[in-house]
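Open question from group meeting: does this chain pack into something compact, or does most of it stay loose? Before anyone orders reagents, we agreed to write out a predicted structure and look at it together. Recording both the input and the output here so the notebook holds the full record.
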Amino acid sequence: MMEKDGKDDSRWSTASLVISGDSFEPDEISRELGLNPTTCGRKGEIRNASRVTKPRRNSIWILKCALDDHFPLQDHLRRLLDQLESKRETIGEISKRYKTELWCGYSSESGQGGCTFDAALIARVASMGVPLILDLYPPGPVDLNLDQQ
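Structure tokens returned:
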């Protein structure tokens, strides 16, 4: 569905570094990485993830790529990796203590389609040493909430 600004609201993509665990201080992760999260929270905090207010099951620290969600997924991953590659060793240490993953969300205009990760991008992702999650969504806008922990 085209909006009046010319953007197709039914097609989007995004990439994030997501760190979650039973209990940690998000500020600890920020200090170690030298980065501020896009969103974070502590286990047990009350949050409003949807219509139901409930406590967090885990602590979470999320760094979302700053690109507009209408850019191709491979651009999101490249931009995120540009921020993270110099912190590879630190991310490796964090991943020994907490669940750490590169999370990607993708939705196409028709529910079909895809994206292309060239060999160089795949090598960059692999060198991070953490899982790559590709979460596919049906066409249309969606309220992404990685902060479900």
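Observations to bring back to the group:
The chain has four helices and seven strands.
Confidence is low (pLDDT under 50) at residues 1-7.
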